[in-house]
């Protein structure tokens, strides 16, 4: 077959491997990619360990192999997953180049963890979401897991929250598939993970947190990864059992159970999570109506062209929209709108945004960001708060972006993970740079995925390339005349290239 991939065990011509090019093949039936980097040929497994993307369709940048789907990053030399959302490494292979031929001789053995001395006092992480888990994982990979305790108010072990509105809710993945890898993946002493633990207060002078049960836990370094919580508007009937929020895995469990008996679902809010829930529930054969104040879904973030495109994707699958409308009241079976019209809904899902969880920091006297700055906990370029030895990461952190030149607070899963990974490297002494990773998120709607790189406050100043209505496009968004964000459809390489160009070297 013309598209059959070469067997690297048999060898390929060395001339076929240009500097920086990614060549796909197999070894013993497994996908492998070869990359010539800085005069050396590297061979690693060819599928991303996050969700299996073919890595030959990605790029090489700064010694890293970058995944085209969700922008995970792997060190070419070691296979290590150095940038979220992937956590588990790629397998590495031994390569021989001689007589004009490059040949893979076999898979390397799994690296045995080295004995590493503890480098300091206890590190306490409050929050088991994207940022907290990623920070714990990176610390544990460096042999410092024994110093780390992670306290999570959630009763489940850390899990991938993006699955809650996508794969798990749609029925494409099982509950167990949502769980994140054990921090450190078995290297060295494990992280102590305690679930179902609420932290009630912080004593800055004594360096102690007190749990809701009255337990005192000491720390040398405290990391606040408290995340955000969904907003429930003060509208009559939104406390009805049939009105549900979606933030946690337990929320997803309840929504799946409710979907088994429901027939008509109303989604309150045309947010990313609202539309992802709509797509998932349509795939469960429910009748879905989206009710939102917006005239065009997501236009306030992506602009009207992309907003109309996303709306059309959902309408083609049978989703109905009631736009420019709000819910006035809900009785468990019917949502009455502000114009008096009604929408049948024996299940209502509320998706109108989230607020950062700052109560714990505020009670401790830690400085918060202003509403004009975007709210959350104010941190410097190293993610340090106003309190000594206390850091904040993830959705709650308001930090100075080096490229934009002003403060931002970002609510993206991957960006939260990368903040956690950055802080771990900073605490380990592996970087002296401030945090500078470019924000990134993806949004899936049926078989269409959108990639968004960068950050702008408004999409009003934009440049459109391609055919948005056909799903093949790039939209560049400007802030103060400079292009600072990019939305793409079917232009994965362009999104990766732009992200690499905008990144500040604070990873790997």
TrEMBL record:
Q: Answer whether the UniProt record assigns the keyword Oxidoreductase to this protein.
A: yes
Does the keyword Iron-sulfur belong to this entry?
yes
> Which cofactors, by name?
FAD
Q: Know the name of this protein? A: FAD-dependent oxidoreductase
Keyword annotations from UniProtKB, A to Z: 2Fe-2S, FAD, Flavoprotein, Iron, Iron-sulfur, Metal-binding, Oxidoreductase
Q: What is the lineage of its organism?
A: Bacteria, Pseudomonadati, Pseudomonadota, Alphaproteobacteria, Sphingomonadales
What species is given as this protein's source?
Answer: Sphingomonas abietis
Output the SUPFAM superfamilies linked to this UniProt entry: FAD/NAD(P)-binding domain (SSF51905), FAD/NAD-linked reductases, dimerisation (C-terminal) domain (SSF55424), ISP domain (SSF50022)
Q: What InterPro entries has UniProt attached to this entry?
A: FAD-oxidoreductase/Apoptosis, FAD/NAD-bd_sf, FAD/NAD-binding_dom, FAD/NAD-linked_Rdtase_dimer_sf, Rieske_2Fe-2S, Rieske_2Fe-2S_sf
Q: What region holds the Rieske domain?
A: 9-104
- Pfam families according to UniProt: Pyr_redox_2 (PF07992), Rieske (PF00355)
């Amino acid at each position: 077959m013309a598209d059959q991939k070469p067997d690297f065990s048999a060898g390929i011509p060395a001339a076929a491997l240009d500097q920086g090019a990614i060549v796909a093949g197999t070894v013993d039936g497994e996908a492998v990619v070869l990359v010539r980097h800085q005069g050396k040929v590297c061979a690693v497994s060819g599928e991303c360990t996050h969700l299996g993307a073919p890595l030959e369709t990605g790029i090489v940048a700064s010694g890293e192999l970058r995944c085209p789907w969700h922008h995970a990053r792997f060190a070419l030399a070691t296979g290590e997953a150095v940038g979220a959302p992937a956590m588990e490494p790629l397998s590495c292979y031994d390569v021989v180049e001689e007589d004009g031929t490059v040949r893979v001789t076999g898979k390397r053995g799994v690296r045995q963890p080295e004995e590493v001395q503890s480098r300091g006092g206890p590190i306490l992480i409050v929050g088991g979401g994207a940022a907290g888990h990623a920070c714990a994982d990176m610390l544990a990979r460096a042999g410092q897991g024994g110093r780390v305790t992670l306290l999570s108010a959630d009763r489940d072990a850390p899990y991938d929250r993006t699955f809650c509105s996508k794969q798990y809710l749609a029925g494409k993945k099982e509950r167990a598939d949502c769980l994140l890898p054990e921090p450190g993946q078995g290297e060295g002493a494990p992280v102590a993970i305690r679930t179902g633990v609420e932290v009630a207060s912080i004593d800055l002078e004594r360096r102690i947190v007190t749990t809701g049960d009255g337990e005192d836990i000491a720390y040398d370094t405290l990391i606040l990864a408290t995340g955000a919580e969904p907003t429930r508007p003060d509208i009559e009937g939104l406390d009805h059992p049939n009105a549900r929020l979606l933030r946690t895995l337990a929320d997803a469990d309840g929504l799946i159970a409710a979907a088994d008996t429901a027939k008509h679902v109303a989604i309150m809010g045309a947010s990313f999570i609202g539309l992802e829930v709509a797509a998932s529930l349509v795939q469960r054969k429910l009748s879905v109506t989206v009710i939102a104040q917006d005239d065009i879904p997501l236009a306030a973030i992506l602009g009207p062209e992309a907003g109309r495109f996303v709306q059309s994707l959902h309408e083609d699958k049978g989703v109905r929209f009631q736009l420019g409308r709000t819910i006035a009241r809900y009785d468990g079976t019917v949502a009455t709108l502000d114009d008096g019209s009604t929408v049948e809904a024996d299940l209502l899902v509320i998706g109108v945004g989230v607020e950062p969880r700052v109560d714990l920091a505020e009670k401790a006297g830690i400085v918060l960001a202003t509403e004009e700055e975007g709210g959350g906990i104010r941190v410097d370029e190293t993610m340090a708060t106003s309190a000594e030895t206390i850091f904040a990461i993830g959705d709650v952190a308001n930090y100075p972006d080096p490229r934009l030149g002003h403060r931002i607070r970002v609510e993206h899963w991957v960006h939260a993970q990368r903040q956690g990974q950055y802080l771990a490297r900073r605490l380990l002494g592996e970087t002296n740079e401030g945090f500078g990773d470019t924000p990134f998120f993806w949004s899936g709607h049926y078989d269409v995925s959108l990639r968004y790189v960068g950050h702008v406050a408004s999409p009003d100043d934009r440049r459109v390339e391609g055919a948005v209505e056909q799903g093949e496009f790039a939209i560049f968004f400007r802030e103060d005349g400079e292009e600072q964000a990019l939305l793409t459809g079917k232009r994965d390489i362009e999104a990766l290239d732009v992200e690499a160009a905008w990144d500040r070297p604070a990873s790997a």
